[in-house]
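Reviewers of the previous submission asked for a worked example of the structure-prediction workflow described in the proposal, so we include one complete record here. The input consisted solely of the amino acid sequence. No template or homolog information was supplied to the procedure at any stage.
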Amino acid sequence: MKFYDRTKELSILKDITAASHNSAQFTVVTGRRRIGKTTLLLKAFEHETMLYFFVARKAEKDLCRSFLHEIEDKLGLPQIGAAEDFASLFEYLMKISADRPFTLVIDEFQDFLRVNPSVFSDIQRIWDLYKEKSKINLVVSGSINRMMTKIFKNKTEPLYNRQDHFLTVRPFDTTVIKEILRDYNPTYTAEDLLALYTFTGGVAKYISILMNAGATTQAKMLDAIVRQDSFFIDEGMALLLEEFGKDYGVYFSILSAIASGHTERAEIENTIGKEIGGYLSKLEDDYALISKKQPIFEKTSNKKVRYHLNDNFLSFWFRFIFKYNHMLQISAFEQLKRIIERDYSVYSGIMLERYFKAKMAESQQYTRIGSWWDRKGENEIDIVAENEIDKTALFIEVKKNPAKYNETALLDKINVFNRTAKVFHGYKVEHLMLSLADM
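From that input alone, the workflow returned the following structure tokens.
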């Protein structure tokens, strides 16, 4: 798959590179695995003098040997001798960059914890010592959110706030997903687009796998995902097992419960039979995998709370792949596909609402977007959007099937909202229905 989008990220990295020609720059690039961080960095610096260090999990001496080859190859330097430790190598690079600006990308930076944890203290010492004279463009990238957060945002760590820039690479937005699907299937349907969004959430690697396999329709995507040799079957485990460590079983059970529609804390605890307060906090604050949702304009922080998974792929994986793993153990792939097809209409309807919220946020036309439900859950409005600048508000009902839209019912809910929230006095208020045709 060709390189798509990342216009903003490329522009930011270009500006940082230009600044590094005058003074050293330290940039941290994060984002979930498979999001395309490495591809982005290689694209951003393809016309620059760049060293690329990949932190493999092997002995520090062996790692430095491979780094030396990269230095000699990319900088055209003569043999500079052996380097037994990364600190010596990094100090050498900081020194020579004073007269010869270049970019140094260190990928999977967090894995220095496995190679030699003292590397972070060494980098901090050497950076502080030489940065005033250096003209290095140092870019470190990491995929394990918990570790990268600890390295750079924990006050007790040596590299706390040493970075000049912190760039998070996010999934492709809805316009880019549409562009990609259009390139591979010019006659795609709205259902195909919704399926691509539902299954991948805009993650570059997942989209690339499906498009390169010719899986450009809903049916073909499902066939590609649920099959014996599928990359996607073990992907949830590959992404999260290292993040969670020995407690992965509890975390997986919580995420599976949420993905299956048990979104309130009491429901989750009843489902897994365990008190989960601390786990929920870590999933939200440390791992950024879930979000706590409340009715829009709710003033009390602990009322009417619902949880949802932020990542579309993981939501799908826990809802269907993890939940029905016993089927995969006996290679019952066709049976699993039938279950997904049975439940897909309701599940994808939830994702359609998420799609429209994302699309509206991308439009930059609103200052607040959310959902609303009353205390008893008897009245719910899919999307409530506000623009505080021009004093407008929009109430939206999302329906995959427009024939099921009931305007009178929506107006009744809006009346309940207005009596409860009392926030849109003097606003121009509109309502509408969005369906597949509006994607």
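The chain has a mean pLDDT of 95. We consider this example representative of the routine output the project will generate in years two and three.
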